[in-house]
Fold this protein.
Amino acid sequence: MVRDVAVIGAGYVGLPLAVRFAQVGRSVVCVDPDPIKVAALNAGESYIGDVTSDELAPLVASGALVADTSYASVAATNAIVICVPTPLTQNREPDTTYIAAAAESVLRYLRRGHLVVLESTTYPGTTNGLLRGILERSGLDVGSDFHLAFSPERIDPGRTDWTVANTPKVVGGVTPACTARAAELYAACCETIVEVSSPDAAELSKLLENIFRSVNIAFINEMAMLCDRMGIDIWEVVEAAATKPFGFMRFLPGPGLGGHCLPLDPFYLSWRAREFDFYTEFIELAGKVNENMPYFCSTKIARALNDVERSVRGARVLVLGIAYKADIDDVRESPAEKIIALLQADGAVVSYHDPHVPAHGELASVDLTDEVLRRCDCAVIVTAHRAIDFARVQEFAPLVVDLRNATGTAGASAPHVHKL
């Protein structure tokens, strides 16, 4: 059976896109090397928070969406969308091995007329360099024999107001014909298409979006550390500044950046910039500030314990929320992981509660009972899930370190609550 679209990688990026294509009548095959994921998808069971099983199951039942571990499935498709991870190496440099591996696998089945689109966040030049170089080993020429483009994923996990359907879709092809072909593909499932001149421009647009947020978050995090030193409530300051109806954009401090994009994108651009003898000092400084936040927060926890004559070693610390942001199950690059590791390294006995993450590593989420709160030495609010009753946390926990302003004005006046 010829299918309209093959989506390579059925994770946080690929699966929501595949479901959206299937919902608008396109036949889709999801290709993923994980047999457990593939089995779950073919059973109509979702493992991604932004896709419910109720949404997925009818698409699978109708045959609109299938999953496969074999790349052979891409041969009988019209378009191939690559949505694979792009992590950093241990040296904080771009790791494009997943893109290269996907391209090598696609190469075996690439045929005349195929459209290939990369969605994975990466540095400018990846599509027109690495990806094109691999695919043109087929003997086919880009722009005439097959089409190649980049279209960045722009979804914010957990949001229901902006989705795959209504978030404007940026598309940049290697040639004008490539751009037109990719725009035609996405027009079927996205309300607004934004065409740019090249894959490089599309790649950089995604980095710009996220680095803009990273830099501004770093600024407010630095302000939070200054306010901590000065004894001023940063949350009060931000709320006051935000009353200005122009010239100010509200950003909030926190324990650090999480998710796949925000913590990584500055390093992607900085690495690429060095190839042009350009040093993105402002961006790199923002990255350093944000990377330091878990260390600052762990020190703040230690100070709070010290105030009640309790050392970190042996202290029972209850971490509330380990997903990287509220109301989702995604723990990628979560600052909670670093904070937990730092506390454990100092001898703390750490447990956690997260209604969206039942287990993580060697730990399992504990029930948030009144007794659990009473027995801990310190409750640390890292992620402000709406499902957590923070008023009850403040009532029963003997000591609270609130890194998200979840306790609000009530916490600001409570002597046992220490706020970021």
Q: What stands out?
A: Residues 373 and 397 are 5 Å apart (CA to CA). The domain at 231-257+293-419 is CATH 3.40.50.720 (Rossmann fold). The mean pLDDT is 95.
